[in-house]
Write a structure and sequence with these properties.
five-stranded parallel β-sheet; alpha/beta; 9 helices; 212 residues
Length: 212
């Protein structure tokens, strides 16, 4: 990666602006007395989760990962559909939103590039999304036809912004998606869902802005 500070930030959504869905499932599981230590619920869950590592490296997609979790729940006699049985939008990360506003006020251009928001928020969710005004462009890969880390979603975002990949920093919680951004010439920043506020602090430092 280059040493220059990009002036365009392209954000992933799930895990960064909102808690990753397994984080919400852990809280639901506590309320419902699920055997959490036996369930694969991401790095913030108490049990082992080999499927998350496969998704992080791009070996399986998020829908495939979600199916692994659903299968594990069924083996424990638990009927639960994450898409239908929980409200993903309730898990907003407050500090992330503060930083997004801070970066906008500091003169950074910002866009959103998401793989799975339609599955969680519904068709054409961006038309009524209360945060849409913070971003110059919102690109959902459902309209692109192929998912990150394939090059097409990143390039669709660049085209919408009318900029060059080298002008952009891409923020994602999956290492595979960060690598995909680097392949097309962007810089990348990996967001650690186990340390969301610390990740936002490191991002501000990376961009050379006064921290909140």
């Amino acid at each position: 990666m280059g040493d220059s500070i990009p002036r365009i930030i392209i954000w992933d959504m799930g895990g960064i602006m909102y808690g990753f869905f397994t984080e919400l499932m852990v809280e639901i599981g506590k309320e419902r007395n699920w055997p959490l230590e036996r369930l694969p619920l991401g790095p913030t869950g108490p049990g082992d989760d080999p499927f998350y590592a496969k998704m992080d490296q791009g070996e399986i997609s998020e829908p495939e990962y979600l199916q692994c979790i659903t299968d594990a729940l069924q083996k424990e006699g638990i009927s639960f559909n994450p898409y239908q049985d929980m409200d993903f939008s309730t898990g907003e990360r407050g500090f992330t939103w503060q930083v997004i506003g801070h970066l906008r006020d500091s003169g950074f251009r910002q866009a959103l590039l998401t793989n799975d928001a339609t599955a969680w928020l519904g068709e054409r969710w961006w038309e009524t999304w209360p945060h849409a005004h913070l971003f110059e462009q919102v690109v959902d890969v459902k309209s692109v036809g192929v998912r990150k880390p394939a090059p097409e979603p990143y390039l669709a975002c660049v085209e919408a912004l009318q900029c060059q990949p080298q002008e952009c920093l891409f923020v994602d919680d999956m290492h595979a998606n960060c690598k995909g951004a680097e392949v097309v010439g962007m810089q990348s920043f990996w967001f650690d869902i186990c340390d969301p506020d610390g990740s936002m602090g490191r991002l501000q430092s990376r961009l050379g802005v006064d921290p909140l």
